[in-house]
Task: structure prediction
Amino acid sequence: MSNHIEDQLSAYMDNELTETERQQVEEHLDTCLACSALLSDLSGIKTQVFTAYHSIEAPEGFEDKVINAIGFNATPVNVSKGSNWLLFPLISVLCFITIVLVVMGSYLFKFSSIMLKVAYNLIHVFGDILGSHTYIIAGLVGLSIVLIVASSISIKHMLKASGFKGANW
Ligand SMILES: [Zn+2]
Result:
């Protein structure tokens, strides 16, 4: 087995292969540890992207709450407090993300798939350079995604801490 099927793994996970191609990939995966390991790495990344998507999905009435929160924090009394200068841009970013999520909607999964391919290509390129360090690169990509999720959670906590009360999310 000299012909690895790395280029087809992403399409395989997205169910974009023909039945024949799919069978060829599965036959190869049965015999090739390297490609099986890569598939499991890619699946891990895809799961993290999927989880990230769902953890930042905007609930009902979220936009109104953000707009209210911005209005609340933009009053002179609150602006005079130093910490709100940091909070305001964070809320703006969050609001922007929400709008993007709402507007992008169903396109986001396709986008995730593109991100996955970009991530895969990065892993592949760095993997060639670093030899056996592919797992480290994959780990770093995963870690970045986790950090993005953690950031969004901390922003939510900051919103709650800012007197954004009655928020049920
Ligand atoms: Zn292989």
